[in-house]
Task: inverse folding
């Protein structure tokens, strides 16, 4: 719980009392991918300060959003996992990801990219009403790659050496932009995006994402 | 734009760079109800400090989320209105409202209630796939009342003296809890909630809200 409450009997303000502190939602974003050790979170969220991360995890545990589980011996330390209430924050996180999608179509100098964050974008941007057979997809960037299998009702991360139906290759901001079908032709023509894979699977992939207006 | 960027090329982190500062989303929440003068925002968001509000409005204007419009003479001052990008934050705000709905089913001592925030809850909790004829609803609490007309594709605030089909009366936290059909019978039986109106309209109202699991 944040040190200071807004003191407003409003579901938005009360939620921000719990998860509105700086860094808190980004800790939750990392834990949506599965339980993590402290040192993994510290590395994924760099340059977060270690006392800030420890404080946020304590707050999340006190609010019932994260469970801390001691590792079985002989290992030492603990893992942190979201509870059901914590996982329910995925809707808030995906709403932010959709609202800010144009912000990752350009890259600011010095910004770090992790392939897991592009997978977060896939999860937020695929149509909730999609159907049809599964498509597996690799996002290949100079900053690393990630692979996912998209089915009608779930999206699973794949091991990075698994064969996939389609690979999108390019800079992270180009791969992000390519999740908007309205931009794909332009990016291919300019030679900034490469798509490899079975033409049928490429076509199905294009139907999994809803086009959004292109910003100049 | 926040003073400090997370430095992460991720649509969630980039969004929080823009709207993650304390108070910012609550300023947007107020402006979703329409353009406001500075002094109206200061009063609706009390106890926000005046320099904090001024700073947040400047940041929102610099990020293209709010337009400042000088009032025509002889009036002085300005109104603040959301741009299209600003209004698009309603999805994020409603996601928070849904996540935190159990938090307003009890009232913390000292918390302020404004009827507009209960209308925000209505907007967040009605089924997006609702249909059927319109229902108008008054939420009457000891802290003030508000009225809305709910149609298949929009929710409009009504003048507070307009006739409505259904009135829910009770403490703010009871009226909030009554937006979950799974709790209505218990609240009526306990005498904590009162429902007045045409039985057909009451039945239709009950179908506009999706039941959610009741917490003990």
Result:
């Amino acid at each position: 719980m944040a040190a200071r409450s807004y003191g407003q009997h409003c579901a938005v303000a009360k939620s921000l009392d719990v998860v509105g502190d700086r860094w808190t939602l980004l800790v939750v974003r990392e834990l949506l991918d599965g339980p993590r050790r402290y040192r993994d979170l510290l590395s994924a969220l760099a340059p977060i300060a270690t006392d800030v991360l420890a404080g946020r995890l304590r707050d999340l545990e006190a609010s019932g959003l994260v469970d801390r589980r001691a590792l079985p011996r002989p290992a030492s330390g603990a893992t942190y996992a979201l509870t059901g209430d914590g996982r329910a924050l995925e809707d808030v996180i995906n709403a932010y990801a959709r609202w800010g999608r144009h912000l990752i179509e350009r890259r600011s100098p010095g910004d770090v990219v992790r392939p897991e964050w592009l997978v977060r974008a896939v999860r937020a941007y695929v149509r909730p009403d999609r159907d049809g057979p599964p498509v597996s997809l690799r996002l290949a960037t100079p900053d690393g790659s990630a692979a996912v299998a998209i089915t009608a009702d779930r999206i699973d991360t794949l091991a990075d050496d698994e064969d996939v139906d389609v690979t999108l290759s390019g800079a992270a901001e180009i791969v992000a932009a390519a999740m908007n079908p309205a931009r794909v032709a332009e990016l291919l023509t300019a030679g900034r995006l490469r798509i490899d894979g079975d033409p049928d699977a490429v076509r199905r992939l294009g139907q999994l994402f809803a086009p959004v207006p292109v910003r100049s």
Q: What stands out?
A: The longest strand of chain A covers residues 135-141.
